[in-house]
Amino acid sequence: MKSTIALLPGDGIGPEVCVQARALIDAVATRFNHDFAIEEALIGGAAIDAHADPLPPATVAVCERADAVLLGAVGGPKWSDPNARVRPEQGLLKLRATLGVFANLRPVKPHPVAAKYSPLKPKLLNGVDLLFVRELTGGVYFGEKRREGDVAFDACRYSVQEVERVTRKAALLARGRSGKITHVDKANVLETSRLWRSTVTRVLRDEFPDIALEHVLVDAMAMHLLTKPAEFDVILTENLFGDILTDEASVLGGSMGLLPSASLGDGKAGLYEPIHGSAPDIAGRGIANPYATLLSVALLLRHSLGLDREAVAVEAAVSDALDARVLTRDLTRRNAVSTAEAGAWVVRRLAE
Ligand SMILES: NC(=O)C1=CN([C@@H]2O[C@H](COP(=O)(O)OP(=O)(O)OC[C@H]3O[C@@H](n4cnc5c(N)ncnc54)[C@H](O)[C@@H]3O)[C@@H](O)[C@H]2O)C=CC1
Ligand SMILES: CC(C)CC(=O)C(=O)O
Ligand SMILES: [Mg+2]
Predict the structure, then answer these.
(1) Å from CA of 200 to ligand 2 middle
(2) Were both Cys, which of 105, 222, 295, 298 would link to 311 (CB 3.0–4.6 Å)?
(3) Residues 6 or more apart from 161 whose CB is under 8 A from it?
């Protein structure tokens, strides 16, 4: 089978982890006899430097003709001047909107070895298996932004249709799991949250009566995630809350460098990326954890290319690496391996 994968390394540690992902994709092709064409393109700060545009038309063209897009990360201090006209993050937001990937899936299932490095008590982590479904193309990240003198505005906007489609995605995913959705909002204060709450309730009542639903306010959820994470399964929420809660949830698994994501829409290519950013504090040192990006490759194989056996093989190889304590510096200071060593270990395992 011939498939095309667009690879957008981006900035900071993005290129470092994407080199490992590229080697892994090649290894999957060899072991399972597939023909994957990888097309690289610029995004974020790298694209601003080259073309004064964080998402150049050439990059959009590469993504639109691909079967799936794999992204490293964008951003960094070089492009973070508050008065800058263009910012790397705008490129990523525009790409998500262009691809129409409204549902961002962020699984959090702590690996027993990595979880030892979590500050949480092991007892609390027993049985934790979460799937965040974060709305990705609406809300405050995409609302009107403006300044009036000393005052700044960021509008948060959601339509019923935007909430309906991501709720249906979450419900279908919940059916294959425990059949329960926790919807997280701030309905005691926000009008958009009240629209979310009534829409989620109606869609599940009318179309998915087999799915159990609870609503939890986001401030309380921030606490529950650290005090009783095993009590949740599918967590459905809007863009900003999902962004924040998933960084928090990375603490359960021991590191930001372990969480992958899949962003899906109703057509076009899916977008796959680690949940972390460009980590400027460690960029260029060869110490970033590549596993979140390698696990994003697994999600890409499963969701966009329909290659479940290959996805399982990649996930098993990363899990074996953790079992064998092939750990980067974010997880251990003793015998830490480099980004390249961790990536090569997984590639070797997959090839066996
Ligand atoms: N999807 C994307 O491209 C995202 C981009 N960003 C951008 O990244 C830049 C840096 O943002 P930060 O707030 O520092 O968040 P960050 O996620 O880049 O880093 C937060 C902390 O986690 C560590 N970390 C992250 N990924 C790691 C990995 N793979 N291995 C080991 N340690 C890792 C970093 O060293 C840092 O201490 C900003 O410009 C931000 O806008 C932030 C989040 C997502
Ligand atoms: C636009 C991104 C920087 C937002 C983000 O942090 C994320 O999607 O995880
Ligand atoms: Mg984030």
Answers:
(1) 24
(2) 298
(3) none
